[in-house]
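Record 1 of the preview.
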Amino acid sequence: MDKKSLRQKAKGERQKLSQEEIEDKSLAIANQLLRMDIWDKLYYHLFLTIEEQKEINTEYMLQILAGKDKEIVISKCEFETLGMTHFLLTDNTKIKKNNYNVPEPVDGIEVPDVKIDVVFVPLLAYDKQGNRVGYGKGFYDNFLSKCKPETIKIGLSFFPPEEKIDDVFESDVKLDFCVTPDEVISF
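->
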């Protein structure tokens, strides 16, 4: 299936989820993450939930990261360049939604791409080879391509993988893992 069709399918599946299902599945994903061997790192990049898109509630993951005393990094999208600027999440970080309802830091302590050890990657769909489909702007592919080679890329999904994404580009960055409410898939 191509990316455009997968985007429509995934958005449709998400819209069917109740708020209670989103919370239950988000908590199950956070619990799956606790089983992974990723907790010896320092800088963890996490996306903040776009509630209007019925995304995974990353609040549970924020609590885990804070409890493990990790450096939490969040981003602000630069729509002119399709790049992202990363900031350390602190008690003083002010969060504001942009025009696309993406919660973003207003400003703060900047963190370079190469410092980030683990990236939790938002997605709409993914396949059994570790390819992902996002919202289509390329922000995460641009960002992930600038990370160090050993940065661990972990997709988060409510749903199991698709068999194959037909129109994968050379510039698409593959996931190392995808975590669902039921399992951790390694690629």
